Amino acid sequence: MNGADLKIRIERLADGELLGQVADDTSSNPWVRTGAEVRLYLNEPGTVFRSPDTLGIGRVYEDRVEVDMILPPSVINRLLTQLSDGKQACLGLDTHETGEYTFRVLSCTSQSARQESKPASRYAAAAKHAA
Length: 131
Fold this sequence. Notes:
single chain; mainly beta; 7-stranded mixed beta barrel; globular
């Protein structure tokens, strides 16, 4: 995989969750669109998601995307610094589809809000089938 295929604009941290919105609007998936709600549930370091190379697992719903994952402290600190400085904080997830509505997170990076990312088009078929 080359770079983030799901870009999330982080808006706030609340009770161990990062809350935000999908920042891409280039996906053919009607649910993974700019403005779709995203909830990132932060898990304790050491949590294992079936394989050691997986940082998290995600689910695509009609109105939101939810991800359970582990974020490296450096990424969390960067996001919090951006938020406290009044800057837009973005997180790019490199994902791999595991089912019609599920995916694994293989890597993540904090990104500039202006960076381009690939569309999350791999979920397009899942959204069409669920409609």
